[in-house]
Amino acid sequence: MSVTHPRGFRAAGVTAGLKTSGKPDVALVINDGPARAAAAVFTTNRVQAAPVVWSRQAVSDGVAVAVVLNSGGANACTGPAGFADSHATAEHTAALLGISALDVVVASTGLIGERLPMDLLRAGITDAATQLTADGGPDAAVAIMTTDSVPKTVAIDRASGDGRPWSVGGMAKGAGMLAPGLATMLCVLTTDADAPAEVLDAALRAATAATFDRVDSDGCMSTNDTVTLLASGASGVVVDAAELTEAVAAACAQLARALVADAEGASHEIAVTVRGAATEAAAVAVARAVTRSNLFKAAVFGNDPNWGRVLASVGTVPVEVAAYDADALDVSINGVQVCRAGGVGADRSLVDLAGAREVLVDVNLHAGAASATVWTNDLTHDYVHENSAYSS
Amino acid sequence: MSVTHPRGFRAAGVTAGLKTSGKPDVALVINDGPARAAAAVFTTNRVQAAPVVWSRQAVSDGVAVAVVLNSGGANACTGPAGFADSHATAEHTAALLGISALDVVVASTGLIGERLPMDLLRAGITDAATQLTADGGPDAAVAIMTTDSVPKTVAIDRASGDGRPWSVGGMAKGAGMLAPGLATMLCVLTTDADAPAEVLDAALRAATAATFDRVDSDGCMSTNDTVTLLASGASGVVVDAAELTEAVAAACAQLARALVADAEGASHEIAVTVRGAATEAAAVAVARAVTRSNLFKAAVFGNDPNWGRVLASVGTVPVEVAAYDADALDVSINGVQVCRAGGVGADRSLVDLAGAREVLVDVNLHAGAASATVWTNDLTHDYVHENSAYSS
C-alpha cells in the first residue's frame, strides 16, 4: 500500500518534533528509477505557501527524484524568509540523497503564518533519509496527517496487454479546508509504469479534475494543496495517456472518497449528483452550489431531508452557467423523490437519514444529458468545534 | 416606529394560526395616500416563491396600496397551486380593502415546499383588515418574525429645505439564509415623501445594493426575499432621488445591521472591510470571499484571530475580479495589524476577541483607492443546532 506499492520507490516517516503532540511529522519519498518523470498540480489560491512556489518551479522540467513533506506547519504567509526555508529544505534533502535541489518537491501542512523550526525539520529529514525502505509508504502516510483520524493510502494494480503488471500507489492527507481546485490536501502518487512527463501531467490533471476537484467539504481553499505524481518505470511497462489516466483517476477517486469520509466532525457524507444538465460544467456548477449550502448541510446533520434548501441552492446558479426551468426540477434523496417538477413530491418522512451515513442527493435539471457528482459532508457541531479550537 | 412612523399608513399584525407556536403570523400594511407610488426588489434566486412571482407583476406598474405578509409558510416550491394561493391572497385582501388585487403585494416566509392553509390565512387577513391603525406598525413587525429573536423596525426623520418634516419607516425579518442579492428577508419600507415610482425604484435599488446586499450571514440565498417601498406623499414634501436614496439607505442600513445582530446562533458580528481596492466591486468581492469562509467564521467563534484563514479566502478571488499582489496584503483585526505584507505582523495574542461582540477585519489590498464593507456572523454551535432542528 501507499507510495511504496509500485516498484522503484522507498519512503519513510519520522518524528521531528514539529508537532506538539509528538506524533510523526516528516515524510520522505524517493524515486529510485530507472525513470524520474514527474508532474504536479497545485492550489489555485493566489496566496500560495512557500513550498508551493518552490515545488512548482522544481517540477516544471518534468523531473523529480524526491518529495519531502512535513506536517506541523504550513510555511504559508511567511514571506521571503519562508521561501528561503523551503529552499533550504530542498537543499538539505538533496545533499543527503546526492541529487539536485531542483529535483526535490517540498510540501508542508499545518498552521498558516508561522515559520518552521528549521533545526528540527533538518534533523528530521536527516533521520528520514536513513530510514528509507521499500515498505516505508504507510509510515510516510502517517507522518503527513494533521486533523486526519486515519492515514489515507491507495494501491491500484493493472496489467499491460501482454500481461505484465504495473501499479499506482498513493497517500493523501486532508480533513478540512477541502475545496476545489484542489481539495485541500497533500497527496503523493507513484507509479512503476514508464511514461514521459507530458503524459504524467495530462493524466494527473484529468484525474484530479474528476476527483479531488469534486470534493468540497467546507468550501474553503487552502494555500498549500500539492498533488505530485512520480513515475519510476521500474515495471518496464510503457503506458499511454489513457491507461495511465484511468489508473491514476482510480487512485485519486479512492483517496478523495477517504478524505470525505474523514472530514472534520462530519456525521454524513453527501453525494450531490446533478443529471439532465446541458453540459458537464453546468452539472458541476449546480452540484457545487448545493454542496456549499450551510443550511442544507446543517439540515442533513439533523437528519432532515430538506429539499427546499436544495432547490434554493440550485436557484443561485446563474442562467448563463446552467440552463434549466425551475418548474421542471426533480430532487430525490436516498431514492425517495421528495420534489417533483419544482414542487412537493413524495412525503419527506419516507427518507430515513438517521440510519444512513451516506446521503445521495439526485437533482434532475431536465435540460440535457450531462451529469456530475460532487461530494461534501454535513455541517456539524464537531466541525464548528474542531475549527474553532484548532488553529490551522 | 416601524411602517406607521410616516404619515399616511396603517398597519396590523394578528395571529391566524399558521404557526404551531400560536404567535402572530399575518401582517397587513396599507397606504392611505394621497399618493400610491411603490417600488420593490426581489431575490435573484431562480427558484422563486409564488408570492415573489405575484408581487413582481403587481408592483410593475409602480402602484401598490397594500402589502400582506405571512410567516409560518414560504409558499415556495408549491407549483401552480401555490401561485393560485398567492393570487387568492391578493384577491381576498383587495376585496376587504375595496382595491384592485393588482395593487396588493404578497410576501411569505417559513418552510419551503408546503402549501399554505388558505382558510386560516384568509380569516387572518380579514381579522387584520379590521385592526388597521396608524400605530399598528410594531404589531406588524412582530407578525413577520420567524427565528428572529426581536422585531426589527426603523424610523428616520428628515426635513425639506424649507423645514417641513418627512420620514421613512420600515420593518424587516430575517435571521438566517442571509445572503445577497438580497439578504434573505422580508422588508417593508414606507415614506410620506412625495416621489414618483421611478424615483422610488432608483432609490430602493441604490439603497439595498449598499446595505442588504452586503449582509451575508451564511451564504445562502432565499427564494422569498422581498423589499417593498411605499410612498404616501402625505407629508406634502416632494423629494428628489438623492434625498430619498439617502434616507432609504439610512433605513436599510439600520435594518441590515439589526439582521446581522440577530443572526441565528451568532456570538460575534464580523465586519470585513476591504480597502485599497482598484474598484468598489473588487472590494466587495474580496470582502464577500472572507465572509463566506466557514473556517474563518468558526475561528472567530473560538475567539481565534486567525488571519491565515483571511488570507486563504482573499486568495480565492480570481485576478480578473480583484487585482492585488499577495505579498502586499495587510490584515488588521480589531485594530491589531496581525498580517503585514502577506506575512506575520503583530502578535495575534494581542487581539482579544473573547471580550468583543464586534470583530472588525480590515484588509488592505494596496491596489487602489476603493473600499467596501460586508457584514457576517461567526459560525457557532447554535447556528448548526438551529438549522438542523428547524425545517425552513
TrEMBL record, chains A, B:
Primary localization class, coarse: cytoplasm
Location relative to the cell: Cytoplasm
GO BP annotations, alphabetical order? L-arginine biosynthetic process; ornithine biosynthetic process
* Record-linked Gene3D superfamilies: ArgJ beta chain, C-terminal domain, L-amino peptidase D-ALA esterase/amidase
What are the positions of the active site? T184 (nucleophile)
Q: What positions are marked as the site Involved in the stabilization of negative charge on the oxyanion by the formation of the oxyanion hole?
A: T109, G110
GO annotations of cellular component type: cytoplasm
Site residues (Cleavage), renumbered to this chain: A183, T184
One Pfam family, short name please?
A: ArgJ
Residues binding substrate are T146, K173, T184, E264, N387, S392
User: Which reactions are catalysed by this chain?
Assistant: L-glutamate + acetyl-CoA = N-acetyl-L-glutamate + CoA + H(+); N(2)-acetyl-L-ornithine + L-glutamate = N-acetyl-L-glutamate + L-ornithine
Gene Ontology MF: a single term: L-glutamate N-acetyltransferase activity
PANTHER family, A to Z: ARGININE BIOSYNTHESIS BIFUNCTIONAL PROTEIN ARGJ, ARGININE BIOSYNTHESIS BIFUNCTIONAL PROTEIN ARGJ, MITOCHONDRIAL
The entry sums up its family as follows:
Belongs to the ArgJ family.
Relate the assembly described in the record: Heterotetramer of two alpha and two beta chains.
Q: What is this protein called?
A: Arginine biosynthesis bifunctional protein ArgJ
Species this protein is from:
Pengzhenrongella sicca
